[in-house]
Amino acid sequence: MGAIGGEELKKWEKMQGAPLGSEEKILVLVRLRPLSEKEISRNEVSDWECINETSILYRNSLQERSGLPTAYTFDRVYRGDCSTREVYEGGTKDIALSVVSGINSTIFAYGQTSSGKTYTMNGITEFTVADIYDYMQKHEERAFVLKFSAMEIYNEVVRDLLSSDSSPLRLLDDPEKGTIIEKLTEETLRDWDHLKDLLSVCEAQRQIGETYLNENSSRSHQILRLTIESSAREFIGKDNKTTLSASVNFVDLAGSERASQSLSVGQRLKEGCHINRSLLTLGTVIRKLSKGRHGHVNYRDSKLTRILQPALGGNARTGIICTLSPARSHVEQSRNTLLFACCAKEVTTNAQVNVVMSDKALVKHLQKELARLESELKTPTTTCDHVVLLRKKDQQIEKASFLS
After folding, report:
1. Residue 55: predicted pLDDT
2. From start to end of 273-344, where are the E strands?
3. pLDDT at 267
4. Do 48 and 58 meet the contact criterion of CB atoms below 8 Å apart?
5. Which positions ≥6 away from 108 have C-beta within 8 Å?
6. Can you give the CATH number for the domain in which 126 is found?
7. Are residues 134 and 110 part of one domain?
8. Which of the 8 DSSP states describes residue 88?
9. Paired sense of beta strands 142-154 and 187-188, if any
10. How far apart are CA 267 and CA 145, in angstroms?
């Protein structure tokens, strides 16, 4: 990742004549964990099997209700004996590391409680950050700034995981940045060890609790955000400096659960209700997006979907890891997870390179763009839409005025 200067700037300017961004489907992976010790002690039977690298099969077809599929296909599926490193290398690495090229990315884990989401996301986060630091060391010609923030959504309240103050944080709408979290702590990282210390703080602050299904059940949705800014060292301090700025989100969702299975009462039951309600909203948003961007999408119905809006249908590359328990007692929950995954793989995002240009560089670029548009207007062709060109010119002028 680096500033777009010299030849890179010329290439970037040429891209402006083409549609910005790159549309692609959300990457959907399924990870099937082994039977847990508790499930083995109850003589549970494993009903799910990964039959190849992309398909998972429900084996108990004799008891299957008619009309429901028994096999599901995704970008990749991983058996219980696959390591988190394999999941990272074979699936999420390419998306997560898009951040070093100025492209926003998000990786999140979805699934029922006790299915392995936190275990998976801890590994994915560690591998990604290690690769980012390795990349930085190999590109000394570029200056990097890394910033880290962390939050959790607990009972529909957003909390700063890097602050001892547990006061709720407000969500605000910014015309340029979208939804932002007011007063969220953002630490500029010194090194890898500094980030490890901050991750330990997050782990200690996050809401967890014991349920029948999991002794250390996550009772909140956690979002860790790493922002990377970079500039070519040769342009630092100069008027024509341009910078790439992007963020990668690591999202560990709380698990869906049934009170009858988790045996939740009191505070645990209340937490489960909030968790299920926000996951229901997430599922509704995913279903609507999977059918195309038509009509209103209710992102604002929960804090989770409001914060994750860019990752679900906006300017980001996104990967979803759906985790499953193979046990027969969890078959309905596992099927619901797979149905969510089926919808998610039909959702399209439109990731763009995020360039922050200095005033001088921006003015120079806009002058060239306006000159090109004026030239097209003076040389009309049968395919030239004057109205579109004039509107584009006006937008360029408005953007220049806003940024100046």
Report:
1. 97
2. 317-324
3. 72
4. yes
5. 121, 249, 250, 251, 252, 253, 308, 311, 318, 319, 320, 321
6. 3.40.850.10
7. yes
8. I
9. antiparallel
10. 41
Same domain, 317 and 262: yes
Number of domains making up the chain:
2
325 and 367 share a domain?
no
Angle 117-138/192-205 helices, nearest 10 degrees?
160
Per residue in 316-356, pLDDT tens? 999 999 999 999 999 999 999 999 999 999 999 999 999 88
Residue 312 — φ and ψ, nearest 5°? -90, -30
Q: Please name the residues in contact with 79: beta carbons below 8 A apart, sequence gap of 6 or more.
A: 32, 50
Given a contact cutoff of 8 angstroms between Cβ atoms, the answer to whether 103 and 351 are in contact is yes
Between vectors from CA 220 to CA 298 and to CA 229, what angle results, nearest 5°? 75
**Token pair 């306006």: residue:** 370
- Say if 134 falls within a structural domain: yes
Residues facing 303 on adjacent strands: none
| Identity of the amino acid at 265 | V
Q: Phi and psi dihedrals of 114, rounded to 5?
A: 70, 15
- Same domain for 274 and 284, yes or no, is yes
Last residue of a domain, one of 340, 357, 374: 357
β-strands 76-78, 27-32 pairing: parallel
Residues 387 and 250 in one domain: no
Q: Is residue 301 part of a domain?
A: yes
Name the residue type at position 71: A
DSSP string, 121-184: HHHHHHHHHHHHHHHHHH-TTEEEEEEEEEEEEETTEEEETT-S--PPPPEEEETTTEEEETT-
Q: Measure CA of the first residue to CA of the last residue in the chain; give whole Å.
A: 26
Quick one: 329 and 370 in the same domain?
no
Binding positions for ATP are 111-118
Question: Are 323 and 382 in a shared domain?
Answer: no
Query: Are 54 and 173 within one domain?
Result: yes
- And the tokens for 2? 């680096």
CA–CA gap between residue 160 and residue 220 (Å, rounded): 12
Tokens (6 digits) for 306: 């409001």
> Is residue 87 domain-resident?
yes
Number of helical H runs and strand E runs in the chain? 13, 19
- Its domain, for residue 188, covers 6-357
pLDDT in tens, 62-90: 555 556 778 999 999 999 999 999 999 98
- Residue of 111, 129, 94 whose CA lies nearest to 24: 94
Residue 139 lies in a domain: yes
Amino acid at 307: I
DSSP-H helix ranges across 168-254: 192-205
